[in-house]
Amino acid sequence: MTESQLPQQSQYAQLPEAPPRGLSIASLVIGIISFFAGFTFIVPIIGLVLGVMGLRREPAGRGMALAGIWINAAILVVWAIITIIVIVVIALGLFTIPFWNVS
């Protein structure tokens, strides 16, 4: 068999590998979850850290990383304000119930 008679092998073009966006996606997802169930400080802090790491390491996920950073930072600010209000209210004694003070 000559070279021209050999069966042709089809050649597929190699698709470029997708750029990594795992940290950025994780930050955004944690931010969204924290928005609806943000009853701890720890989860938004983790999302904030992942967003900053994603912003530095993954240029392709910049938008998701920024969204995750903003959402997680906003949740942390809201929780800080709520914590300060609760501490002030407790310190001022506004939650005292008068009938518990039996003399």
Describe this structure in words.
By secondary structure, this protein is mainly alpha-helical. The protein has one domain. Helices cover 61% and strands 0% of the residues. The longest helix is centred in the last third of the chain and has 31 residues. The protein starts with 21 loop residues before the first helix and ends in an 11-residue tail after the last helix. The relative contact order is 0.15.
What is the number of strand segments?
0
* Helix fraction bin: 55-70%
Oligomer: single chain
Global shape: rod-shaped
Give the radius of gyration. 27 Å
List unreliable stretches of 5+ residues: none
Number of DSSP helical runs:
3
The biggest beta sheet reads:
none
User: Which structural class is indicated by helix and strand composition?
Assistant: mainly alpha
Share of residues in strands? under 5%
The domain tally reads 1
Please trace the helix and strand order, writing H or E for each element. HHH
Mean pLDDT: 83
N-to-C terminal Cα separation, in Å? Answer: 111 Å
Search tags:
3 helices, mainly alpha, rod-shaped, 61% helix
Question: What's the topology here?
Answer:
Layout: H1 22-37, H2 42-57, H3 62-92
What's a quick, concise take on this entry?
The protein is mostly helical. 61% of the residues lie in helices and 0% in strands.
